[in-house]
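Quick check before the chapter quiz. The format below is the same one you will see on the exam, so make sure you can read both the input and the output lines.
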Amino acid sequence: MAGSVIAVGRRKEVVPVAEEHVSVVVVGAGFAGIGLGVRLREAGIEDFVILERAGELGGTWRANTYPGCACDVPSMLYSYSFAPNAEWSRRYGTQPEILDYLRAVAARFGVAQHIRYDTELRAADWDEGRGYWRIDTSQGVLTADVLVSAIGPFSEARIPELPGIETFTGAQFHSLHWDHDHDLTGERVAVIGTGASAVQFIPEIQPRVGRLTVFQRSAPWIVPRLDWATSSLERSALRRMPMVGKAVRGAYFAAIEGFGLVGFVDKRFRHPYEALGRLQLRRQVRDRRLRGRLTPDYMIGCKRAIFSDAYYPALTQPNVEVVTSRIVAVGPRSLRTDDGVEHEVDTIIWGTGFGVPPQIFDRVHGSDGRSMGELYRERPQSYLGTTVSGFPNFFTTLGPFGAAGNQSAIYMIEAQIRYIVDALNTMRDNGLRRIEVRAEAQEEFLREMEARSRDTVWVTGNCRSYYQTADGSGNAGLYPNWSFEYARRTSRFDEDAYLTSEVR
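Here is the expected output.
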């Protein structure tokens, strides 16, 4: 019977074509999946596929198309180190431009041909007897030596359940699923939530709507964005002198890394950052009553601080109201708050963030049959944010304690990609069939993470956020140390931390 030969661990086993076999299956064609594809090809690993549930690559930058969608990290840093781009039109890349960049990288490095679109992972189960992953997708069944989750943390919309929401007769949609066919002109619009996405789209829609009611649970910290359009001279210098681009990237890295002083070095370092946020608020909001509503009551960094120069001015316009009372009921065309006020609206836009952990965690089952989602809800756990005990030959990007609260996600992703590829090279070179992080190595890492997290602003900053566990008592998965220290720890695959078995 025809079949395919497994390559990564040199196991000479033929798998029937009824279940197509590949060495490596990567789930997700966003920044992590594309970057991993580039490095796999560079390592000589060509027997891999990238499963993408959508009809196009891009991940969060494909899915989020709301007005004003842009990155909140400077473009020179929010891009691959191996694929610098001198053509950014602005200091902060917009969604269409970032998506175009990803398309170009996938094409340039030959990754696009490995992507299978409209292919959603339904379930992945480790087969201990056969020593591979069985992966059920919307396009059929695959088996693989190695499975990698490259799904980002912002892939699924979170919409809170409000009493009576099923009775609402107007339009409603989440920022992740923006309805571009719906005309907001002259409408009474309610925006629920004031996170990073809402801060970007509110200034865009405010001039068009008739009445905008912003329902705020807690005021975000807003600091100056200082965005500008790049000049032809700047772009020319970056094209002609690559070292200039490296220097600019390094400067941005150092500036953003410095925010770690607030997060995990000493909370007293937060005061200059908070002073900057207060100055922004005082300068842009003259009304004392509104300014009081927009003043955060927690330490900066406890929730994600947001860069914006347009948000506060939009909220001061005469057609905008900021409501801090809690929504208690929804009617056919209204939202009632706990102060008894009925707010009439035509459209609800949910700016309420994303589900954590991603649903894919509930679809991946390890050697004992338990899912990643079950483990995460008990306690966020991993080793270096890349592997999990009980899940052989399985890797993640931006897994628990593999994401940074003070750095570009791309920097962390590239560190994890290096680690994963080095692990696969180790398997290939040493003839290893199976690797799994030792439970004691993972536990030692988690104890370190918990100890380092105890006094961070994420846990003790007097707020509730997705940075915290469900009960609010612990760090939900941010790496509580410098990102360059994380990059050093993941610079090579530490085989001694793993249980391994050779090809039979």
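If your answer matched, good. The first strand starts at residue 3 and ends at 5.
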